[in-house]
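Lab notebook: predicted structure, single chain.

Context: the supervisor wants predicted structures on file for every construct in the current expression panel, including those that have not yet been purified. This is the next one on the list. No modifications to the sequence; it matches the entry in the shared construct table.
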Amino acid sequence: MASNDSDRHRRPVIGLTTYLEQAQTGVWDVPAAFLPKVYFEAVTRAGGTVVLLPPQPVDESVADSILDGLDGLIITGGKDVESSRYGQTPHPTNDVPRTDRDDFEFALLERAIARDIPFFGICRGMQVLNVLRGGTLIQHLPEVIGSERYNAGGGVFTPNPAITVPGTRLAELVGNEVTAQSYHHQALDAVGEGLTVSARGDDGIIQAVDIDGMSFGVAVQWHPEMSPEDLRIFAGLVDAAAEYAESRRVRV
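Prediction complete. Output recorded below exactly as produced.
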C-alpha cells in the first residue's frame, strides 16, 4: 500500500502512562487520570505527539492494541511499585500500592520490549522495568545512604550528579555526566535480566539503565522533564520513534 507524503513527515506518536488518583476540579471530586504538564511538554518540544494512557484492565491483546497506535512509550513517575512483585514485604514508608497501574504498565512494557517499540522510563518507570525483568529495589534509600539527598519532600527536586558509563546509549545522548533532578526514596538494587547500568551517582546508587538489544530502551531514576538539558533524552526517544514509524510504513 502506498503512503502519502504526510505519512512520512508526521510527528511520531508517544504514549505516556498516567496517574489514576482522586482529583478535584470545580465542583467535582472524583477518581481521575492525570499527568503533570511538564511530561508532555518535553515530548512535544522534542518533536513528538502525545497520547495519554490511563490505567485500565489489560491483557496481552489489549496491550498490543494500544501499542499498535504508538511509535514510542514512556512510563512516567508515580507511586512505589508493590513490593510483593519483587518478593519483599513493604517498608513502612512505601506508598499504598496502586495495583491497577502496576498491572497496566507491566503488561504494556512487556509487549513494548517484545516488539522493540522505543521506550523511555522515568523514575517509577525505571523501577517498573527493573522489577519486570526480575530485579529488586532498595525500598528506602535513606536507610542505605544515610541522607535524604534524593528526596527532600514537599515537591522540591534536588540536584545530584549522574555519571554515565561509556559506550551506553545514555552516554551517547548526554555525555559523561548530567545533573539529575531527583525525587525518589527508592532505587534499583539487584539489576534485572537484560539490563545494563548506564549511570550511577557519586555514591554508587544506580541512576540509569539501558535495555540490551533494543533499538532504543533507556530508563533513568531522575526526572528529566524538569531540566532543559535533559531534553536530549526525549529527543533521542522521538528520533527513535520516527525511525520505528518509518519502518512500519515501509512494511505496510
